[in-house]
Structures are given as structure tokens and as C-alpha cells.
Amino acid sequence: MAEGKDPLRYFRVEARELVDQISAGVLDLDQRPGPEPVAMLLRVAHTLKGAARVVKQKEIADHAHAFEEILVPHRGDDAGPLAAEEMRELLRLNDAIAACVTVMEKPAPAPDKKVEPAKAQEKAPEPRREEVVKPPTADLDELLDAIGETNTRMAPLRVGCSTVERLHRSAENLADQLRVGRGNAAATRAAAERLAAELGSAGRRFTDSVDQIERELEDVRARAEGLRLVPVSSVFTTLRRAVRDAADAEGKRVRFEARGTGIRMGAHLLGPVSGGFLHVVRNAVVHGIEPEQERVAAGKPAEGTITVEVERRGRFAMFRCIDDGRGFDLDALRRTAEDRGLLAAGSGPPDSESLLGLVLHGGISTAPAVTEVSGRGIGMDAVREVAVQLQGEVKVHSTPGLGATVELIFPLALLAMTGLNVEAGGTVATLPLDVVRACVRLSPEEAAAAAVSGRIVYDGSAAPFLPLAEALYTGSTVPDTPGIGAAVVVNTTGGTFAIGVDRLAGTSGLVARPLPELAPASAVVSSVSVDADGNPRLVLDPQGLADEVFRGHQAGARPAAATVAAPLPILVVDDSLTTRMLERSILESAGYEVDLAASGEEGLEKARARRYGLFLTDIDMPGIDGFTFVERTRADPKLAVVPAILVSSRASAADRDRGRDAGASAYVVKGEFDQELLLGHIRRLVVRS
Amino acid sequence: MRVTSVAGRVEQLRADFDRSFAEPARTLDGDSIELLAVGAGGRPYALRLSQASGVHPDRPVTALPTTVRALLGVAGFAGTVVPVYDLAALLGHTIGQRPRWLLLTAGTPPMALAFHELDRHLRVPLGDVVTASTDDDGQHGCLQGLVRLPDGDRPIIDVPAVRALVHQLAGHQPVPEEIR
After folding, report:
1. How far is A429 from A522, CA to CA, in rounded Å?
2. Of chain B residues 36-95, which have a CB less than 8 A from chain A?
3. What average pLDDT does chain B have?
4. Phi and psi for B93 in degrees, rounded to 5?
5. Which residues of A141-165 are buried (b: 16+ CB within 10 A; e: fewer)?
6. How many whole angstroms from its chain centre is CA A589?
7. d(CA A487, CA A506)
8. Mean pLDDT split into 10-residue runs, chain A, 689 residues
């Protein structure tokens, strides 16, 4: 079919939008009967009927008409609510229309093939679950508007081009006149001046137009980026309908609540999540929510509630389904687990956490026997698969008699956020604004004090403080910069801390994307965004920063919860036995494993024989000296990844420069040997396994 | 067809000239090879043009906190964020000043190599390329043969081998595990 002659081109878009409105409206009406949802549905169904007739989609028009017929008697304030049978019929017609529209949206295999709604309905356990989540038309309209706007800005440029052409001719004329010496000097000068003036104003107009186009294009780019993300609310209708259908089939009354509808994320994520959560909400109705009498007897409201919450935590998204039903049947789970020998012998009775863990982490969930008793095996399988696919995680909480919660947490690839731009050590980086609690201006003295003590007083208590430049320049020298001018106080689940930045550079909306492959980075960077000039900008990970900050504050004794990898061993190269032993004792008491080498040669040999996290080397040694040791290791790609620190009694600037040129990451002078300073460098630099 | 008039001759020349732009550049017409003569870490090298998908000067590189020393950072190419590796560092030379040129390599995942000097573009007869194995000390198999030029021999950098080295380096540092 020729694209330009496709009569259904626009109808498809409109019909999909109207069907979505009908699907949501029917569920609204079901939950909150009243004249408003009825009026809305009548309006939408009527529009659909009209549009369908225009493009000769009789079936859709007929269904829409039947839909209207049911609703008409219930229009107006004093009309009674719909009977259950009428409600069911509305839902059936809703599905029938949706099926027609879905068929129409697929490329027609044969022109004579007619839509059979009854057939479409037969395979209706999941009529429109597989559908692609699309960006709303309104967003597309806005993008098109923005492109149109940019286009109109081209007109002045077109005019400008002909002006330039004209001025070019004038200039040539003038040159001719000058060449042949015709005309008087005054007139020629006047002409030249006129030309210069005209060129000047043409140039200004060009500059204005180009500036304007640049701004418009930036707007277009931002909107187009936003289109890659769709609102989470687009999957709620599907979930809500699943709850409604399941409740109807079970003869239960269940109310559906949605929270966090405004969040946007990549359409490729929402598809699988919605698929997995469909099972979760259905199971919550079927197995979680008790029959009405049972609920009333237990002192609960007769109507059960299922809440689906969506939340964004840093670069993770969290979908949560909460029901107020009976919770998981832990006794049955325990029995089955025991029968199948899944519990370690002699480990005592398992607690509920480990039982729920068994459901989640395989083993018993796929077995039919357990599926029947636990009642949630299949749903759990589905959601676990989604979690694996999205590299996320599922958590289950259950309180017998009070309900259960299923939580799916997964990292977001593309993430729209508002960021606070900060500058540190010449680099601009972005921090998600929602974790920023405050920004504090620091005087040079305050900044120096904070950097030395590693703490800053905020809100009456001392918060750990880390200059951001230190975290950003892991493994290299921090360039000279004006110095810290502000502290940003950050709130994370791990606690409150502050980072020192040179200056604040405003806030901006951005789309964060994962770091590319082949770009392994420190955990303080979670993702990158692309700025208006097309250059990457680092997006900081609050959790990674927190780990970095708190690690610096509790040397050796890292928080048990943190999953930070253990540091690799450190190789100490020094020809002096005393220094070797001193350094070893310092490092070992800080929790590092240490190997020793008495010369540069031995050091190189050992360095190649084992993976180290850091080299700590003296400079003045017989044979290969420290500079050479560092240079040789830098020249070997396998060893170059291991940072090197030079320790020496040489204190001159020239030696420091030479050390830096050789590729040393830090330089510590023995005379002013400061254990804390050395450990600080090591903590910052050491490679972890 | 014989062209008689001067106008016809001019027309013919113009058409030939225009057509020459429409024809794809010949990278390898059987007996010659196209190379880029580059300088990295103060030494001359050559790169096969067919192993590159673009050369860009002075593109801003956003530094990345990383323990991989050769990884200079990331740069933007038409909306794609691409890791940039220092060619000199990969070849085992001490890193001097920041390289000016970025070479986008062919293959996936996207990767750019930074080098200091772009000397010139060469088309040399295949016979001038010596495929004998070069002294491999320090270069980790990144060099494959050399090209004989009037101003001296240039080792040829094997981009796929460099890519393999980068994969190995990046793989050595597993992406930090996600918290939680």
C-alpha cells in the first residue's frame, strides 16, 4: 500500500489514543461510578464512532455505538450506576474495539482479510499485553512544533543569502570603478561606506538568526531525547485491567491504586516490566486477597486493595506491588522445602526471609507442587525472569494476615533527570538534583579547614567531606584550579555527606545514559549525558560518592553493607630494610596485604608475577631507581593500570615534576612522612579486585 | 564518441571532473594500499585507512576517573559517547602531552584512538609493505609489518590487535558492581 494513499494513516493514531482513553475510562467508571466518567466515555466513544465511519471501519463504529447505547441511560446526575452485567459488556466491547485497532495497526498481510472480533477475543487472556509502549502523541506534536519553529527561523537566513549576493555585486562594481578610475573619489568613498554599513547590519542579522536557530535546535534535541522515554502511567491501565478481570473472575472486590505515574523511562524497559508485573498483580488478587467474608471476619475492609508504586532511586527504578491480603503461606512453603530437602540439615527452623528467598532464587519455585501450595510460583518466575533480563533484583516481603509486597528494582539505562552542574578541577560534572540537600558557599579558609579535617559542619552536625576533584582524578594529578568554593550536601540512603566543588554551574534537564563499553570508570561516575555541544558530561553516582567518602572516613573498617571489592595487595619497593618494615606495618595495620622487594629489579619481577593494587617505591636505589621503576611499569599496559606512589627523602619541586612525568600518581616526602597522608593516597588510588 | 567542438570538449571535461567526485574512493585497487602516516609518542607509525572510520582533530575529550591509564576519557561523535584510548600508551610509550587527533576505529563496540601527529595520507604499492614480523618487544603484538617510505620505514599499527589489547585492559577492570 502506498504510504501516501493509506487512508487509515491518521485514523490509526487517533483510534489508538481513543481506545487508550476508553480502556482507562471504563476502569475509572468501575471504581468510581458517577456522571463524570460516563460523560467522558460517551464523548470519546462518540468521537471514535464518527472517525471510524469516515474511514469506513464499520466494525469499530458498531462497537462504539453499542458502547454508547449502554452508557446513555446512565448519563446525568440522577442516573443510577451501571449493573454488573452492563459493566462486563462495556469491558467486552472495549476489548473488541481494542482488538480491531490492534489488528489495524499491524501491516495487513492480505487485503481481503477481515477482522473477526470474536476470534480476536478468543485469544484474549492477554489481548494487548505485547503491545509496544509508544510515546504519547502530545510529545510528538510538541517535537513537530519545535521543528516547525526552527524551520521558520531559516527564512531570515534565506533573505540574508540574497542580501549577501547583492552586496557581493556592489563590492565588485565598486572594485571595477576603482580599477578604471571612473567617477569621483567622494562618490566612490560614499559607496564604499554604504557597502560597509550594509555588510555590518547583514552580519548582525546573520548572527541573530544563527543564535536563534541554535537555541531552537537545542530545544528540538531536548524534546527528541525526551521521546525516547515514556511515562510509566502508560502501563498502569493494563495492570489495572488485569486486577479488575482477576477480581471479577474470583468474585472479589479489589481496588487498584497507582503511585508515581509521572515518572518517565525507556519504553524498552516498560514492556518487560509490565509483562512481569501483570502476573504479580493477578496473583495478588487470586492468592493474596481473601474472600470478602474472611476479610470482614478478620476486621479488614471488605474491599481489598492492590497498590502499584513506581519510584526512582538514583539510577535505579523500583516497581512495587503491595496487597493487603493474607500474605504468603509460609507454613506450606516450609513443608515443601523440607520435603524436598532444600533446607540445610540441622540449621534449625528457617526464618520467613530465607523461605521467601527460596521462592525467589530458584530451586522450588518452578516445581508444580510448590507452585500450588505457595500459589505464587509462576508469577515469581515471570518477575524473576524480567529482573534477570533487566539486570535487576526482586524482593518479597510478607506479613501473615496483613499482606505481601513484591518489589522489582532495576538499573535505568536512559534516565531523564534534573541535574546540578558542578565544576571541580576543571571538569564539569552533574549530580542528580533530587539527592542534593543544600549548597553551602565556602570561604577559602573554610574550604581549607574542611579539606584538612575531612568534615564540614552542616545543620549542627559534622558531615564527612570530600573534595570532588580527588574523586574525579583517581590515578592522575589534580590540575591546578581556583580551589574549592562551595560544598554540596548530599543525602543518600547511606547517610549525609558533602563534596567540595570549585563552583556551582546551574541546573539543567538531561538524559543520562550508561557509560560506553570499553570505558571502565570509578564507581563515583554512574553515567554520561551529552551537552548542547555534543560533548559527554559525567553524571555522578551519589551512592558511589557516598562509598568513596565513607571509605575515606573509616579506613579498614568499611561498612558491612557496602559491596566494595577488596583492595589488591600492595608491592613495597625499597632498598632499606627499616623503611620496608615500617611501611609494611603501616599498610598491614590499615588492612592491606603487602609484598616486599629490596630492589627495582626484584620489584619489576614481582610486579609481573602477581596482580597488585598499588606500587609504593623508593627513588634512590642501586640499579633500577624509583623513577625508572615507575617508567618501566607505565610502559607495560598490563602494569600501567597499577598506580604507583613515590616515597623519597628528595623534596625538591624538580624531583616531584620528574616523578609526575614518569607517571607516578602521588609523591610522598619521607622527611615529612605522614602516615595519614600516605594512607589517604593509597585509599584513593589502590585498585580493587 | 568523438567530441569535435571546443564546447563539447569542455562539457566532456566537466562531466569527467564531476563524476570523479561521485565515484567511491578506491581503498585498495589490487596492488596498492592506503595508509595514514601518524606520529604517536614521538615515533612514526602508519595505520591502514580501511581499519578506520574517521579522523577528527581537536575534539574535546571528557576525562574519566579510571584506573586504566591508557583510557583518556570519552568523546562525543554524533550523539554517541565513545571511549578514547591513548595510542602511545597502548604501544608502550611514556605519555607525554595530550594527543591532538582522534581516530575512530572500525568495528564494535565504538572506540577511538588518540595520537599526536597526522603526517600525511599515503597510497603505496603493496610491494612496499613488508609483512615480516616486527620486533615485538613492548608493542604487545599491536604492530604488523612495516611500510618502506623514502623518509624511512614506518611500522604499521594493526588496529584489530590494538582493539584486542583495549578489550583486555578494559576487561581487567570489571565494571564496578552495582550497589544493592
Report:
1. 14
2. 60, 62-71, 73-76, 78-83, 89-90, 92-95
3. 80
4. -95, 150
5. ebbeebeeebeebeebeeebeebee
6. 40
7. 14
8. 61 84 87 84 86 84 91 81 86 90 70 43 39 62 82 84 91 87 80 91 88 80 74 84 87 89 77 84 87 91 92 80 86 74 62 71 44 50 79 85 89 76 87 87 85 82 86 60 84 85 84 84 86 86 86 49 61 85 82 88 91 90 90 86 86 85 84 73 78
Contact: A641, B172; criterion CB under 8 Å: yes
**Alpha helices, DSSP H, located in chain B:** 6-22, 87-90, 159-172
Which ranges of A32-83 does DSSP label H, i.e. alpha helix?
A: 35-54, 58-71
Is residue A134 classed as helix, strand or coil in its secondary structure? Answer: coil
Asked if residues A509 and A480 have their Cβ atoms less than 8 Å apart, the reply is: no
DSSP structure string for A209-258? HHHHHHHHHHHHHHHHHHHTEEETHHHHHHHHHHHHHHHHHHT--EEEEE
**Which DSSP state fits B174?**
P
Q: For domain A3-128, give its CATH number from 1.10.4160, 1.20.120, 3.10.350, 1.10.1750.
A: 1.20.120
Q: What Cα–Cα distance (Å) separates residue A673 from each residue in A223, A236, A655, A670, A682? A: 55, 62, 16, 5, 14
Residue B14: all three cell numbers together: 566537466
Whether ipTM exceeds 0.90: no
Compute φ and ψ for A417, nearest 5 degrees: -155, 165
Q: Using CA atoms, how far apart are residues A200 and A217, in angstroms rounded to an integer?
A: 26
- Kindly list the residues from chain B whose CB atom is less than 8 angstroms away from the CB atom of residue A635: 92-94, 138
Q: Tell whether A550 lies on the interface with B, counting CB pairs under 8 A.
A: no
CATH architecture of A416-553: Roll (2.30)
φ and ψ at A113, to 5 degrees? -70, 125
With CB atoms and an 8 Å threshold, state whether A522 touches B109: no
Residues of A in contact with B174 (CB under 8 A): 520
Whether A411 has its CB under 8 Å from any CB of chain B: the answer is yes
pLDDT computed for residue B107 by the predictor:
83
Helices and strands, number each (H, E), in chain A: 24, 22
**A332: its cell numbers:** 506450606
Enumerate the residues of chain B whose CB falls inside 8 A of the CB of residue A547. 179
Q: Where are the domains of chain A?
A: 3-128, 139-227, 231-328+376-411, 416-553, 570-685
Instruction: Find where cell 595530550 sits.
Output: B98
**Given an 8 Å threshold on Cβ–Cβ distance, is B79 in contact with A534?**
yes
Angle between helices A137-152 and A154-180 (to 10 degrees): 20
CATH superfamily, region A570-685: Response regulator (3.40.50.2300)
DSSP H helix total and E strand total for chain B: 3, 11
CB atoms within 10 A of CB A301: 12
Domain range list for chain B: 33-172
**What topology is assigned to B33-172 in CATH?**
OB fold (Dihydrolipoamide Acetyltransferase, E2P) (2.40.50)
Q: Is the dihedral of CA B147, B149, B154, B156 positive or negative?
A: negative
Subunit contact B78:A534, Cβ cutoff 8 A: yes
Q: Is A186 left (phi over 0), alpha (psi -120 to 50) or beta?
A: alpha
Mutate to test the interface with A, among B66, B87, B167 (most CBs of A within 10 A): B66
Query: What is the third-level CATH fold of A231-328+376-411?
Result: Heat Shock Protein 90 (3.30.565)
Q: How many residues does chain A have?
A: 689
Cell of A355: 523461605
User: Rounded distance, CA A610 to CA A632, Å?
Assistant: 16
For A551-593, the three-class secondary structure string (H helix, E strand, C coil) is HHHCCCCCCCCCCCCCECCEEEECCCHHHHHHHHHHHHHCCCC
